[in-house]
Structure formats: structure tokens, C-alpha cells
Design goal:
The complex is a heterodimer of chains A (448) and B (523). Chain A is α/β, with parallel strands linked by helices and 448 residues long. Chain A is built from 13 helices and 13 strands. Chain A has 2 domains: 117 residues, Alpha-Beta Complex (Aspartate Aminotransferase, domain 1); 258 residues, Type I PLP-dependent aspartate aminotransferase-like (Major domain) (Aspartate Aminotransferase, domain 2, 3-Layer(aba) Sandwich). With 523 residues, chain B is of the alpha/beta class. Chain B has 15 helices and 12 strands. Chain B starts with 11 loop residues before the first helix and ends with a helix. The chains are: A alpha/beta (448), B alpha/beta (523).
Chain lengths: 448, 523
């Protein structure tokens, strides 16, 4: 077995040094009833070639996004990732190290996470960010729990235009909490909900999405004021982080907590994970934050360096009183995010956002020309909602038969809501070409 | 092997002289291969960019009047600068690729690069989670295959794949337990957790609305069965137990513990962090376990990545299977299908833990690892991991004080009695090991022994590596006994930074870079 360095001779010598006669003696504490005498019923070991053959065969049964005109979004976006990103994150010192508990031999990870925290703060317009969470949806759940701690209140209002998976993840996270309840508004494709009306003296936070699940952009300044007047916090969720290169930062609208999905930068679609959750807030809430934080300090010679800090919030110290049970971040995904955003820089990030917006505008204009098709959005960044004259799930399936990956039927996420049956989310990015747009329009025209 | 390579050829005094000699300072701070690196923000210029993107075509603006006008503050660097920046940062890290990393409870084993290649196949990496099922049959097959391997290895009939990490898996398991208890109208309030448990266990139980009570350990480092039997009652919802436990010991009374728990109406959660010790040799189902998370980043070698991402699938007994969260994959005549909503589910899922279907990239890597080992290789993994740990225990026992008598499983636990009276602490000792070229062991955990040193060598280390490590530990113990306190307190010396001031970092937290104030603003 290529991964196991011990030889039969080593094993004999080591057993002798330990003073036992066989390996079974080292498993003597296992109750007899639980001893497996033979092998479990699984295939035997295989070489690289065989494993590669089997897994490649599975991979070939899928239609990769890059092999078809592709317009899916709804919380996961296909962007071009520079070759440099993957090369750098595969350096063994990044890939194969653990959490930086020994800072003297982890300055690389720590400095990169400090840069990550800084960048997340910059793009969200917030003062402080942590070193990442599992993904956007779990970051959102943590934001609700944090808002409840910070306000000592127990009710969270979730917008109907928040990603349905995020709404479910929040509801699940607080399901057994004795102190927190969730008021999740109905899916709101019409954009008519009045969130301020739902705020009362028990409201810990209002959670909105920007751009929202249907692609619309809202100025939340007034909502933030309404929250603050009632002693509640405003949580803004961003599932397409590239938007922040084009639109006003949530921090500039008065958000108290900004959480997001960072997948769009540096991370592949990967069939849903691993992704990277962003979490940013105001300085005054820093001790209420969940997750890991990297801070600046000096070493014994006064040289600048970095360490994990404020860990007294965390589970390994506080146990059942911790701010969260979380004990990892999404380190390598956060590193990929940081490298991609460093490559882009100020100018590149803004240009990337502009390219995304332009691609979406062109796609929307072309689809609007199709008889019976209507674009619902007044505003959008790189994703918008299309009203079709037929159920969207059927249209999407029939497009797939023509090898066009057309969009996400809203009914996939919001089943059983007649207002959503004919709605399709369509996203375009810098990877979208004019030919892709033409292929999408042609497929839809043919099907309708 | 040339054992003399890298050995000091100078006397101790000569070496100390060099270390304190000002002439050893270089002009700009670099020292040979140790290269200083400033923050990216301190190197950037707004005129530079590391990507070439086309000019955006002229289109209308649909941003609803919300266009961003202010500067963001991001740096501007060319591609070669970015490559050098992150390469230099990587060189300040110690990884498994660099050397021995016996961090107890973390299972720092070799990360095969085949797994990386498999995870990057476009047929897996370039798939959107919401593509029509007809276009992702191979991806669903992979998830189903992984689930089959995990079910076979645990002997448990169901598995939830969506949890993103071990702690997330604990949450998944404990929520299923609470949902199952509530479904039978049972409102038990207490979760029992042994003293030696990972901190995530009590934190998770609290997140599920439970009151946590601690169960004492016996003198041998295992759960005190008598104390447990005494405490078990109709208010106890579950026991959360790590097995092998965090002292590196197999809970030999585990079947009896499960019987007492089940007889009293409670459910059994097992923290599977230490599954590497028993994989392929013992099935958790045969121990009476109802739910156990499996850290794919430990036992199944998906890379730790400097702190994630991980993956923490949870295997469930028949009693808990109906409560498995959404989404999950089913296989029927028409192929593979995702169950994404409660209305389509056969049982009563307790909810959804996160967006989409789980850490697919980790599933691919873990399955690649499992297939490479097979049933025979995985059993050998457990045996070699246990053998390596016992070899370390046996070799070090004359020097370092073992916390408990007898053999261990995949990790060995020592306390700090061997340092008593020397003035050297466990922390100092660990920092000195860094100078010897090793990553330190886990320190001060578990909390049940004083000044704990927990070493987990894993199966991917050779005997020669273990022998060198033993030599280094013995030599350091000798120095400690000889009273060289200053040597330890000054360690590490050969790292990019010396000991860092963690107290100062926490007292006045600086958590991001800020543009230095310009001279006029400051004035």
C-alpha cells in the first residue's frame, strides 16, 4: 500500500519494542463482541490508475458547466478563476497544515487570514470580519444567533427575498433553541413586502439579501434606521460577492452584520461545496462574533506578527457557554478568495463586476424580446427573474435536453407556491459569451 | 540515511555566540531562505492589476441607482508579485508535507495528491449544485457510493452527508436525537458529556437547548461506569462520548454503557474524531452507537488546509434514520435523485443544515482515498496508526511520564510530571520541539491530566521518523532536567518569528490593516 511506510520487518521490531506479540494485543480493550475478524465487505485496495479510471467514469456522466451555455446562479456562480489561484493553494505548506495554533510556524496562514479579514471588511464596508465560516448559509444562521446575543432579544425576521436555503438553514439552527424564534416571511417574487412593519420590541434582527434572491437591488438605509430606532440589528446577506465591486457597500447603508457566500472569488462551483462564508460586523460587536479571528501582535524581538486572538469566545475555552460550537473556518477556500481578490485588486474587481453586469443586461435584453417572456426586475446586478408562460422546471429540463443549462427554476427551491411555478432565475457572468446568449434564447424560443 | 546531516558541528558556546552576535543581522531583514514579507496592502499600487479582463461592452445600467462610487481600498499587484507574496507566506508554514505533525486528536496524516486531481475533474468541480438531475447523475452516484462505504465501515444503516465539519456533524447528530425524542413525546433536558470531551461536544449540546452535565472519569482515564449508571435517569436525552476517547484509550465498557443508556431511554452519540484507530476493525454499530460523525479530514485524509474546509458526515442507527436532514440522495430504477424537500421525504427530516448538498469536493477526495486503500488497506491504516502510537508510548515512557498505564490506541497521552521542578512548562517544551524541526503535539488537552501532551503519529509515518522524534524528545528532556530553563523559554529560535505576544493581541485587538494616517491628518 503506497501510503503506508511501515514494512513487515518494522512492524515486528516495533511490536517487540512495545512488548506485545501481535497487533491484536493492542486492540485488547475492544469487547470481543465488537471485534471484526475479517475484512468489511468493500473492494480491496487499488492503484492510482484504477481509482482514476473509476472516478473519471463517474465524472464523465455529468454535464460540466463549461461544456454548455450556462446561466445558473441562485447562490453559486461560475466565474473564471486565474490559474495562479489553484497553483498557490496547492502548495503543501498551505494545503497540509492545521489550524494555526502554533503561530511561530503558521505565520503564512495567519498573515493570509489577516489579509482576508481586511479585504472582507473593505468590500462589505464593515469595520471587522472574521477568518471565515463554513459557507454563506451557516454564516447567516450564526448572524441571527449573534444578533440575539447582542440585543438580548429572541425574534428574527427573515425577508421573503432571502435565499430559501438560507431561510431553512436559519430555521434549522434555531429549531431547538429555547430563546430564539424565526419569523420567515412568504417568498416575495413581487417585491411587495414591508419589513419595517414586522419590527417590534422583541425583534433582534431583520435579515435581508443584497442583491436579493430574485436579483433585485434595494437601498436598505431606511430599513436600517427603522431597525435601529427599535433597538434591532440589520443583517445583510450577500450571496454574489462580485456584486460588491459594482454596488454600494451594505456597510454604507447602516448594516450591523454583513454575511456572505465568498465562493464567487477563487472557488469552483464544485456541486455545492466546499465554499467560504464571510462574516463582518461593527467594532462594538467584536466580542459577540462567532468564529476564528486573527490579530496583529509582536514577537519577543518586537517584530510584527499574527496570532489567533479573542479565543475566549470559543468552544475549546468556553465549552457550553461559547458563542458557537464552530471550531474551524474554511481556511483554504478563504485563501483562494484572498489570492483571487489580490490578483484582481481595486481596478480588476471593479472591472470584473462591470463585465458581469453588462453580460446580464445583454442577456436580459435578448430574453425580453421573446414572445411571452417577461423580465420581472427593475434593478439587478448579474442575475434576474424571468416570468415564463410555462412551468420553469419544464423549460429548464427541456433546455438541458438541448444541452443548454438555462437557469434555476424558482420552484426547485420554493415548491408548491403557484406564484413561483413559472419563474426562472437567470445569471450571467464574465464567462458568458454572445453565442451562449444566442443559444439560450434559441432554446427557449423553440420550447415555448 | 546520512544521520549526520544538519547536525551541529560547532560547540554549544560557539552557537550561542552566533545567535547573539549583531553581525548575524542582515541589511534588510531577510535571512537566506527566511524571507520577510509585508502585507499585500503595503505593496500595492492602484495602477497595477494581476488579471487582464476585456473592456466591458457599453450597455445600459440597471443597478437601480446604487452604483458604488467610493474607493474600496484593495491593493493592486501584478501576477508575479502575487505569486511571490503567497509563495513566501507559504514558506512560513509547517505542513504534513514538511515533516512530522503529531498533533493529537487531529489525525495529521499524508494527503495524497491523487485526491486533489480527482476533485478537480471538471465533471465534479465545474458542476452547479442546482443543475437538472439528468445532468449530474455521476455526481449523485459518487455521493451514493461514498455513503455506501461509510455505512459499511460503521455498520449503521443511514448517513447524512451535508455537515460541513466535525462540529457541524455533532450538531446534525444531536438535532436528530432531539427530533427523535420529541417525536415520541419525550422532553428530556440533559446531555451527559465526559470530562475529557472535545469542547465542541458541550457547545453543541447547548445549541440544541440541552443542559450539559459532566461525567467523571475513573482513575484509568475512562468513563466511570458506576458514576454513569448512578446518574442515568429519565431526564437524560443522550450521552456524547468520544471513542477511542481523547486520552487515546478505548472505552472498554462501551457496550455496557450503551445498554444502560438505552435501557433508560437515552440515545448514544459518538464523536467519531478518533475513528482512525478502529476503521476497518471495529464497526460503531456493534458498540451500540446511534449517531456518529466522521471527520473526512481526519480519518479519510482530506487536507486540513490551514483550518478547513472539512466535512463531517453523520452515520445513524435505525432509530434515527427517519430524521436525517435534507437533502439526501436516493437511487431507484430511474437513476439517482435528490430529496430536497420534506414533502418528498420518506421520514421526517429535522431540517436543512446548509445551502446545497454538502462538501462535494471533500467527498471526491475521501472516496478516492478509500478506494485506494480498500477494505484491506483501511484495516491496515488502523493497525499501523495504533502500532505507531504504542511504539512512541513505549519508547518515550522511560523519559516522559505517561498519563495512564497500559497500551493506547492511535494516540498517546503524557502529563508534565517529567518536567516537575525543572521550571520548564509543557508550552516551553513544545516550542523547543519546533526548533528540532517537528510540529508540537497537542498541549493542555484533554483537561483531565495536568499539562497534557497528546501525540498522534498516524499510520503514514515511518519508524525512522518516530525514532528521530524520540531522540529529540529525550535530548530536550535531558536539557530540562539539566536546568536549561532559559533555553526553553527562548524557544523557538529558528522560526520566522519568535514567541508572539498573545496577551497584547487580545487586549487591544488589531483585526485588519488600515491605511496609515497621512502626515497632515495626523497633525
Amino acid at each position: 500500500m503506497r501510503y503506508l511506510p511501515l514494512t513487515a520487518g518494522d512492524r515486528r521490531e516495533m511490536l517487540a519494542a512495545i512488548g506485545v506479540s501481535s497487533i491484536d494485543d493492542l486492540f485488547a480493550d475492544v469487547p470481543d463482541a465488537a471485534h471484526l475478524s475479517g475484512l468489511v465487505d468493500l473492494p480491496l485496495h487499488a492503484g492510482e490508475m484504477e481509482v482514476e479510471r473509476t472516478l473519471s467514469a463517474m465524472a464523465r456522466k455529468n454535464v460540466a458547466a463549461g461544456d454548455a451555455p450556462f446561466f445558473l446562479g441562485a447562490g453559486a456562480y461560475r466565474h473564471h478563476i486565474p490559474a495562479t489561484v489553484d497553483h498557490l493553494i496547492q502548495r503543501g505548506e498551505f494545503l497540509t497544515s492545521y489550524t494555526p495554533y502554533q503561530p511561530e510556524v503558521s505565520q503564512g496562514t495567519l498573515q493570509a487570514m489577516f489579509e482576508f479579514q481586511t479585504m472582507v471588511g473593505m468590500i462589505t464596508g464593515m469595520e471587522v470580519a472574521n477568518a471565515s465560516m463554513y459557507d454563506g448559509s451557516t454564516a447567516c444562521a450564526e448572524a441571527v444567533l449573534m444578533a440575539c446575543r447582542a440585543t438580548r432579544r429572541g425574534r428574527a425576521v427573515l425577508s421573503g427575498s432571502l435565499h430559501p436555503h438560507y431561510r431553512e438553514a436559519v430555521a434549522t439552527a434555531v429549531r431547538f433553541s429555547p430563546h430564539v424564534t424565526v419569523d420567515a416571511l412568504m417568498a416575495d417574487p413581487g417585491g411587495t413586502e414591508d419589513l419595517a412593519r414586522h419590527i417590534d420590541d422583541q425583534t433582534a434582527c431583520v435579515v435581508v439579501q443584497y442583491p436579493d434572491f430574485f436579483g433585485r437591488l434595494h437601498d436598505f438605509t431606511k430599513l436600517a434606521e427603522a431597525c435601529h430606532a427599535a433597538g434591532a440589528l440589520l443583517v445583510v446577506v450577500v450571496t454574489e460577492v462580485v456584486a460588491l465591486g459594482a454596488v454600494k457597500a451594505p456597510g454604507a447603508m447602516g448594516a450591523d452584520i454583513v454575511v456572505g457566500e465568498g465562493q464567487s472569488l477563487g472557488n469552483a462551483l464544485g456541486f455545492g461545496g466546499p465554499y467560504v462564508g464571510l462574516f463582518a460586523t461593527r467594532d462594538r460587536f467584536v466580542r459577540q462574533m462567532p468564529g476564528r479571528l486573527v490579530g496583529e501582535t509582536v514577537d519577543n524581538e518586537g517584530k510584527r506578527g499574527w496570532v489567533l486572538t479573542l479565543s475566549t469566545r470559543e468552544q475549546h475555552i468556553r465549552r457550553e457557554k461559547a458563542t458557537s460550537n464552530i471550531c474551524t473556518n474554511a481556511g483554504l477556500c478563504a485563501l483562494a478568495f484572498t489570492i483571487h481578490l489580490t490578483l484582481l485588486g481595486e481596478a480588476g474587481f471593479k472591472r470584473l463586476a462591470a463585465l458581469n453586469h453588462a453580460a446580464a443586461v445583454r442577456t436580459a435584453e435578448r430574453l425580453a424580446e421573446i414572445d411571452g417572456v417577461r423580465i420581472l426586475n427593475d434593478s439587478f446586478f448579474n442575475e434576474f427573474t424571468v416570468l415564463l408562460p410555462k412551468p420553469a422546471a419544464t423549460v429548464v429540463d427541456r433546455c438541458a435536453e438541448r444541452r443548454v443549462l438555462a437557469g434555476v427554476p424558482v420552484s426547485r427551491l420554493v415548491p408548491g407556491d403557484p406564484d413561483c411555478t413559472n419563474l426562472m432565475l437567470v445569471a450571467a457572468t464574465e464567462t458568458t459569451t454572445d453565442q451562449d446568449i444566442a443559444a439560450l434564447a434559441a432554446a427557449i424560443e423553440e420550447i415555448l | 540515511m546520512d544521520r549526520s546531516q544538519g547536525r551541529k558541528s560547532r560547540t554549544e558556546t560557539e552557537l550561542d555566540a552566533v545567535m547573539t552576535d549583531d553581525s548575524a543581522e542582515t541589511a534588510i531583514g531577510h535571512r537566506g531562505l527566511q524571507l520577510e514579507e509585508t502585507l499585500s496592502f503595503e505593496q500595492g499600487s492602484p495602477d497595477r492589476c494581476g488579471v487582464d479582463l476585456p473592456d466591458p461592452p457599453k450597455t445600459g445600467n440597471r443597478l437601480g441607482g446604487l452604483a458604488r462610487k467610493e474607493a474600496i481600498g484593495l491593493p493592486g499587484l501584478s501576477e508575479p508579485q502575487v505569486v511571490r507574496h503567497f509563495t513566501r507566506l507559504s514558506q512560513k508554514n509547517y505542513g504534513i508535507d514538511s515533516g512530522f505533525y503529531p498533533l493529537g486528536s487531529c489525525t495529521m496524516k499524508h494527503n495524497p495528491r491523487l485526491n486533489e486531481r480527482m476533485a478537480r475533474l471538471p465533471g465534479f468541480a465545474d458542476l452547479h449544485p442546482l443543475q437538472p438531475e439528468s445532468t449530474v447523475q455521476g455526481a449523485l452516484e459518487l455521493i451514493d457510493t461514498l455513503a455506501h462505504w461509510l455505512k459499511t465501515l460503521t455498520g449503521l444503516p443511514a448517513v447524512a452527508l451535508s455537515p460541513a465539519a466535525g462540529a457541524h456533524g455533532e450538531l446534525c447528530g444531536m438535532m436528530a436525537i432531539r427530533a427523535a425524542l420529541e417525536a415520541r413525546g419525550d422532553s428530556r433536558e440533559v446531555v451527559l458529556v465526559p470530562e475529557s470531551a472535545h469542547g465542541t461536544n458541550p457547545a453543541t449540546a447547548a445549541m440544541c437547548g440541552y443542559r450539559v452535565e459532566t461525567i467523571a472519569a475513573d482513575d484509568g482515564g475512562r468513563v466511570d461506569v458506576a458514576a454513569f449508571r448512578e446518574r442515568m435517569g429519565p431526564d437524560v436525552a443522550a450521552l456524547m462520548l468520544t471513542n477511542p476517547n481523547t486520552c487515546g484509550l478505548f472505552e472498554r465498557d462501551i457496550i455496557e454503557i450503551a445498554e444502560i443508556l438505552h435501557a433508560g431511554g437515552g440515545l448514544f452519540y459518538c464523536d467519531g474524531a478518533n475513528f482512525n484507530a478502529i476503521v476497518g476493525r471495529v464497526r460503531p454499530a456493534d458498540l451500540g452507537i446511534d449517531a456518529m460523525h466522521i471527520n473526512l479530514h481526519k480519518t479519510f485524509s482530506t487536507p486540513h488546509g490551514g483550518g478547513g474546509p472539512g466535512a463531517g458526515p453523520v452515520a445513524f442507527s435505525e432509530a434515527l434514520a427517519p430524521f436525517v436532514p435534507l437533502p439526501y440522495v436516493v437511487h431507484d430504477r430511474d437513476g439517482y435523485r435528490l430529496v430536497e424537500h420534506a414533502d418528498d421525504a420518506s421520514g421526517t427530516p429535522f431540517g436543512r443544515l446548509k445551502a446545497f448538498h454538502g462538501q462535494m469536493g471533500m467527498f471526491t477526495r475521501a472516496l478516492s482515498y478509500m478506494m485506494s486503500h480498500g477494505a484491506d488497506g483501511l484495516r491496515q491504516v488502523a493497525e499501523d496508526a495504533v502500532l505507531n502510537a504504542n511504539y512512541l508510548l513505549a519508547r518515550l515512557s522511560p523519559t516522559v511520564t505517561p498519563a495512564f498505564p497500559g497500551t493506547c490506541m492511535h494516540e498517546c497521552l503524557f502529563d508534565d510530571r517529567f518536567l516537575k521542578g525543572t521550571g520548564v512548562s509543557t508550552l516551553d517544551f513544545a516550542k523547543a520541539l519546533i526548533d528540532e524541526g517537528f510540529h508540537p503535539m497537542t498541549m493542555y488537552f484533554p483537561l483531565v491530566v495536568h499539562g497534557a501532551l497528546l501525540m498522534e503519529p498516524t499510520e503514514t509515518e515511518s519508524k525512522a521518523t518516530l525514532d528521530l522524534f524520540v531522540e529529540a524528545v529525550e535530548s530536550l528532556a535531558e536539557r530540562a532536567r539539566a536546568g536549561e530553563v532559559a533555553y526553553f523559554q527562548g524557544a523557538p529560535r529558528f522560526t520566522p518569528r519568535g514567541r508572539l505576544d498573545e496577551t497584547a493581541a487580545a487586549r487591544r485587538p488589531v483585526l485588519r490593516w488600515k491605511e496609515p494616517e497621512s502626515a497632515e491628518e495626523a497633525a
